[in-house]
Amino acid sequence: MDMVAQAAAGAFSITGEADGPPMMPGPTTGDSGTGVQTAMAILAAYIQRQRTGIGQEIEISMQEAMVYYVRTRAFIGSAWGTRATGRNGNAGGLPPVNIYACKPFGPNDYIYLMPVTQGHWDELCAAMDRGDLLIDSRFDTNQGRAQNGAALYQEISDWTAERTKYEAMETIAGAGVPCSACLDTGELHHDKHLTSRGFVHEMELPVHGKVPMLGFAPRMSESSVDMTQPPRLGQHTDELLAAELNLSEDTLSKLRDDGVIGDPARFS
Question: Which overall architecture, per CATH, does domain 98-182 show?
Answer without folding.
Answer: 2-Layer Sandwich (3.30)
